[in-house]
From TrEMBL:
Residues 618-675 form the DUF4982 domain. InterPro entries: Beta-gal/glucu_dom_sf (IPR036156), Beta-mannosidase-like_N2 (IPR054593), DUF4982 (IPR032311), Galactose-bd-like_sf (IPR008979), GH (IPR017853), GH2_Domain-Containing (IPR051913), Glyco_hydro2_dom5 (IPR040605), Glyco_hydro_2_cat (IPR006103). This is DUF4982 domain-containing protein. Keywords: Glycosidase, Hydrolase, Signal. Pfam families: DUF4982, Glyco_hydro2_C5, Glyco_hydro_2, Glyco_hydro_2_C, Glyco_hydro_2_N2. Belongs to the glycosyl hydrolase 2 family. It comes from Sphingobacterium bovistauri.
């Protein structure tokens, strides 16, 4: 090589590094055009798209159908998205990547007419390297062909996707999530986007966490690529900033990386005075990792993360060294809103997810498919733990469809392994084989070996590998890995139906059959819905941590917000939520708030009166109060009505209360009679005026085409009290640079996109969305016949756009929720009972199966031979002890009653008939000391409650061990038994 040419290369090298610019990322959401329907050559540069509709991402092309149409009627089509792009200035252009947070369902991507990649799982984020096809000067054309067919098949294999399902995966098609463009130099930290790019990005984790000393060892790893023709060296620098953006630690490592090499760099140091991430305490740090050479900072990546300590053992979940009973919701991953679908503004994700925390939920299980980045990051901020699935439907699969699931799990783990709120990875909505579980564990251990996250699946009751399990509609206990109910209580209720005494006078349970079954539980009113929520939760609470060696680790109520997915009631959407589609609470929301406030034990001061106090004179009805106290009294106008009848620990019923205008007050007490709390509701006056209130993100309201304003409209009396029975029609008028998206109510088309809609139970809510690059003042007014009107105004702030890319300000600087406090000094776990070890057992028949009744495996049982004389089993304890209670899980627990006699050391102690449960029936006996406990069937078993509820396909709900016991009236079948001594 000639010396002059070497000198030229050297000068070029020096010039590059002396003028190098560090990496930049911008939103690519703006100024797309769409065409519904396939069209030839739409990827070509010269194609004329001037007549296509202009939209701003995230944007599902069929978003107008959200809650207007039932899920199975969501429109499908091939839809093209096109964008013109001139590259921004002052960015490195050596490497340019596109990051799609997700498309539905498959997408083929073209840049300047060149095919650059495909993505087809319909769920997960993916990346593309477009460096070689970009025009550095002039215009670029990005074209994306999307296809959201329900029967979409992978191009290479012709395989369908198991999770592309009309029951649960609302089909908001096209590009309903964000798109980003990354500009990087030739030596750079990769993106955590394995599909197409095959890269893993930054990984932050902690070891040797000491909660008491607030200390940990912090590790930061970056996968780095050197795409130059020479070896590079310099410093790998890590900066740690706290939630106030104060630099609290800086450390570095020298690196050398060969030409063309991909290498993982690691730096580590001790972090002191740590603020730990916790439930309801979304404390986050910013980790800045930098790649430098001797002259410049080349590449910078910021990672938001938090630090927490977890453990999954003894059937329980530990967070920051404390036992935490899991309480929360199995929420549809779409987490959708009317006329918007999932594509809401970032602050609205926080609003919705924080509401879960405000109901005292600590865990959300996203159902069936991986959530999008906005919701995952939102849970970090609000302090809500997550159970994160890959993708599936209702069963294990094989072949290519199983491979698709493992690939999706891999991508999800890499993308979300820095998010502290992710506590569990879910491999299936039904049990998977042990071989498949081993595959998933290997993926977790390869890509997230230090995240302290459990991996498991629904069911997996007898798995030796799964790190958690749990069924959906009944109770599991375990002394090994935690058992968490993954979706309990599917009952449905409209928010507008208070009770049978309030217009529109919905008789509880009234509605059509569902697949030929009685569907009354899917057509409840709010009184009934709240009471049922209490009954269901109590079955988990009574076997909570601290109640023995085998416990339930909690449960997740399906669902949090009414959902545009499969339904069983008379409306065309799912109404199982504790809040409605616009996140207005139902009474069940407040019931959970009372029951769930505490790490394990409920805060005794919790108290809520179900319903309202505006009735016709002479109305007589039952009043429900939800309380964690030991006694509740009810007063009308300060006159005591009586003491509530307690059931399911938390529900107090006051029967046949006669309405009197004025105040209704509940007072709760502890066991000694000390007042814990009081709540009052009062009769509102006649509707007088319309009242408006609005909110947007605390970080501002920006003209990015996705930011939103949410407006509450209430009908109030002269004193400003909401009128809880008002149903007035509200007419809205607005002026300014925003788009109306409206709300929802029961009526034609569910009032989707209507600018007139009624309040329900005195309140409703609407959304407006900004328009890209349109700023100014907005004025909104609301009118109702016969009532005073109201008016609001606000302004939309500008964004900085650079050749069609911009910084998405509505995503930045959203505050963390720290409302619950650090939570590091909670009371230790209260031990209520000690489980007495069983040494052996003898039975009247099938002696070889007796261990199945106390083996901590709910898929096995002991059963006699069907004859009354053999329907007994006697357990011998390890030693003689006082015995107080027996938890017994009998087969057909949901439907069959068993007349039983209980003997201790040969003495009859109890003569009872069991009631149907969701799993475990507790037999309370007089405290008796003994070593042998005998359970004997004294008479024929019988059907006490018809197992009437069916799955979406007609399958009956699980009712114990699968065996035909229909005519076996002399069968005694015990799945598990726990014998306890109370503390």
């Amino acid at each position: 090589m000639k010396p002059k040419y070497l000198i030229f290369l050297f000068l070029l090298f020096i010039t590059y590094y002396s003028n190098a610019q560090d990496s930049k990322v911008y939103s690519l959401n703006a100024e797309w055009r769409i065409h519904v329907g396939d069209i030839d050559k739409a990827q070509d540069v010269a194609f004329n798209d001037s007549t296509w509709k202009q939209v701003t991402l995230p944007y599902a092309w069929n978003e107008d159908e959200a809650f207007a149409k039932p899920i199975h009627l969501h429109s499908t089509n091939v839809v093209w998205y096109r964008k013109r792009l001139a590259l921004p200035t002052n960015v490195p252009l050596e490497k340019v990547f596109l990051e799609f947070e997700g498309v539905r369902h498959g997408a083929q991507i073209y840049v300047n007419g060149e095919y650059v990649g495909i993505h087809e799982n319909g769920v997960m984020a993916f990346g593309l390297d477009i460096s070689k096809v970009l025009n550095r000067k002039g215009e670029n054309i990005i074209a994306v062909r999307t296809d959201n067919s329900w029967s979409y098949r992978e191009k290479a294999t012709n395989s369908t996707y198991q999770w592309n399902d009309k029951n649960f995966n609302a089909n908001y098609g096209g590009m309903p999530k964000n798109v980003w463009i990354h500009f990087k130099p030739s030596v750079y930290q990769t993106l955590p986007l394995y599909s197409n790019l095959g890269t893993t990005g930054v990984y932050t984790y902690a070891k040797n966490i000491d909660i008491k000393k607030r200390k940990l060892d912090l590790f930061v790893e970056s996968e780095v690529k050197n795409e130059t023709n020479a070896a590079q060296s310099g410093k790998y620098i890590v900066e740690v900033r706290d939630a106030k953006n104060v630099l609290v630690k800086e450390f570095e490592q020298i690196y050398t990386i060969a030409a063309g090499e991909t290498k993982v760099l690691q730096a580590k140091d001790v972090l002191q005075n740590v603020n730990f991430w916790n439930w309801g305490y979304g404390y986050l740090y910013t980790i800045t990792s930098k790649i430098t050479n001797p002259n410049n900072v080349m590449d910078v990546v910021e990672t938001k993360t938090g630090f927490r300590k977890t453990a999954f053992r003894n059937g329980m979940v530990y967070l920051n060294d404390q036992v935490l009973m899991m309480k929360g919701y199995a929420q549809r991953t779409s987490n959708e809103w009317p006329a918007v679908g999932l594509s809401v503004a970032p602050w609205l994700s926080d609003f919705s997810n924080k509401l879960m925390v405000e109901s005292n939920a600590n865990l959300v299980r996203w159902m069936h498919v991986t959530p999008w980045r906005q919701d995952v990051e939102s849970c970090d901020r609000v302090g809500l733990m997550q159970m994160l699935p890959a993708g599936d439907a209702e069963r294990d699969v094989t072949g290519r469809r199983w491979e698709l699931r493992t690939e999706l799990m891999r991508d999800a783990i890499i993308y979300y392994r820095n998010n502290p709120s992710v506590l569990m990875y879910e491999c299936g909505n039904e049990s998977i084989s042990e071989a498949h579980m081993a595959e998933m564990i290997a993926i977790r251990d390869q890509y997230d070996p230090h995240g302290d996250r459990a991996i498991g699946s629904r069911e997996m009751l007898d798995s030796k590998l799964a790190e958690y399990g749990g069924e959906m509609l009944y109770i599991n206990k375990s002394a090994r890995h935690p058992m968490i109910a993954t979706e309990y209580m599917r009952d449905e209720a409209l928010r507008k139906y208070w009770d049978e005494f309030t217009y529109p006078y919905h008789k509880n349970g009234e509605g059509p059959l569902y697949k030929g079954n009685d569907a009354s539980s899917y057509n409840r009113n709010q009184d009934s819905f709240a009471a049922e929520a209490v009954h269901r939760w109590y079955e988990y609470y009574k076997v909570r941590p601290g109640t023995g060696a085998r416990v339930s680790s909690g449960g997740l109520n399906i669902i949090f917000s009414d959902s545009n997915t499969h339904y069983r009631g008379k409306e065309n959407y799912r109404r199982s939520g504790e809040v409605d589609p616009m996140r207005i609470p139902k009474d069940a929301f407040y019931a959970h708030q009372v029951m769930w406030n505490g790490w394990v034990e409920s805060d005794p001061s919790g108290l809520h009166i179900v319903g309202h106090w505006n009735y016709k004179e002479g109305t007589i009805k039952d009043v429900f109060v939800v309380s964690a106290g030991e006694k509740v009294d009810l007063f009308i106008n300060d006159n005591k009505i009586g003491e509530g009848e307690r059931s399911s620990h938390f529900l107090y019923t006051f029967s046949a209360v006669k309405y009197q205008k004025g105040t209704l007050k509940a007072v709760s007490y502890d066991a000694s009679g000390k007042v814990l709390n009081e709540k009052v509701i009062k009769t509102a006056g006649e509707p007088y005026r319309v009242k408006l209130n609005y909110q947007h993100g605390k970080n501002g309201l920006f003209a990015d085409g996705n930011d939103m304003v949410m407006v509450d409209v209430e009908v109030v009396d002269k004193d400003g009290n909401r009128c809880p029975t008002a149903t007035n029609m509200i007419d809205f008028k607005f002026d300014g640079p925003m788009e109306w998206r409206g709300g929802i109510a029961q009526g034609s088309n569910n009032y989707i996109l209507s600018e007139s809609l009624p309040v329900e139970a005195g309140i409703n809510r609407v959304l407006l969305r900004t328009i890209f690059n349109k700023t100014g003042n907005v004025r909104l007014s609301a009118h109702a016949n016969g009532l005073l009107s109201d008016e609001l105004s606000w302004s939309v702030e500008p964004i900085v756009s650079n050749n069609g890319v911009f910084v998405k300000s509505s995503k930045n600087n959203l505050p963390s929720n720290l409302d619950r406090g650090e939570g590091l000094s909670e009371s230790p776990l209260k031990i209520k009972r000690i489980t007495l070890p069983i040494k052996s057992a003898v039975a009247g028949a099938n002696q070889d199966k007796v261990k199945g009744s106390f083996d901590d495996n709910e898929l096995t049982d002991w059963v006699n031979d069907g004859k009354m004389q053999s329907a007994w089993i006697e357990y011998t304890l390890a030693k003689a002890e006082f015995i107080d209670e027996i938890d017994i899980k009998l087969n057909n627990f949901r439907s069959r009653a068993y007349p039983l006699e209980i003997y201790v050391d040969g003495k009859l102690i109890a003569d009872i008939t069991t009631k149907t449960t969701l799993g475990y029936y507790t037999i309370v006996i007089p405290r008796t000391k003994g070593k042998k406990v005998k359970i004997k069937l004294k008479g024929s078993t019988y059907i006490a409650e018809v197992n009437k509820h069916a799955e979406i396909g007609g399958k009956k709900l699980d009712d114990g061990v699968a065996r035909d016991d229909a005519n076996a009236k002399g069968n005694l079948s015990i799945i598990e038994i726990d014998i306890h001594k109370k503390i």
